[in-house]
Design brief:
Layout: H1 3-24, H2 29-40, H3 48-83, H4 87-91, H5 94-109, H6 126-135, H7 137-140, H8 147-165, H9 172-189
Helix pairs in contact: 3-6, 3-8, 3-9, 6-8, 8-9
Length: about 190
């Protein structure tokens, strides 16, 4: 079987598992369509320019969401494999663990909100992910070309992500940059 076919089959298996996981959480295509329909009810409340920008940025947000969580999965898989199940305690800089503990503590105080996750890695910021990789460079140097490459790409993604997360809009040049960076990262780590 060729590398492309293996990759396609593997990605299909992962997608199937993701759909199964969503289904177990009670989220299915029907639920997603209902959510989307509910949100479209408010479309008329906003100017066309704002609605257009929101839709454009939501597509970019989806790509950033996917790459950020793919990097998280990459870290978890690699460090679990090489360091064992307690890798969080032994492989994450104390500053990041402290930040994660603060976020989790805030969630405990604000129980009316659903918790983000049961996994510490899900409380990390995008920039934290490159810090974890560089902190454990011996475990990633066979996959990542060099630390400067990683830090540059993650830094650019993080700047773009912050614009979107604070309701800003990116111009087409930045959107093109995001697409290239995401492709670079995915090609390198998968």
């Amino acid at each position: 079987m060729s590398k492309d076919v293996k990759s396609f089959v593997f990605k299909a298996m992962l997608a199937e598992q993701d759909l199964t996981d969503l289904s177990k959480k009670g989220i299915g295509v029907k639920n997603l369509k209902e959510i989307e329909e509910t949100l479209h009810v408010i479309e008329d409340d906003f100017s066309g320019v704002i609605w257009y920008s929101a839709n454009k940025m939501s597509s970019i947000y989806k790509a950033l969401f996917c790459v950020e969580n793919t990097i998280r999965g990459f870290i978890v898989d690699r460090l679990s494999e090489r360091k064992g199940t307690d890798w969080w305690e032994t492989c994450v800089p104390s500053k990041i663990k402290t930040e994660v503990d603060k976020l989790k503590s805030d969630e405990i105080k604000n129980r009316y909100m659903s918790p983000r996750s049961n996994n510490n890695i899900d409380y990390t910021l995008l920039g934290n992910l490159s810090q974890i990789i560089t902190f454990n460079w011996d475990d990633f140097s066979d996959i990542i070309p060099n630390q400067a490459w990683l830090n540059s790409r993650v830094g650019d993604l993080e700047r773009c992500r912050n614009v979107i997360m604070h309701t800003g809009t990116l111009d087409d040049y930045d959107v093109d940059r995001i697409e290239i960076i995401i492709r670079d990262i995915i090609r390198q780590i998968t």
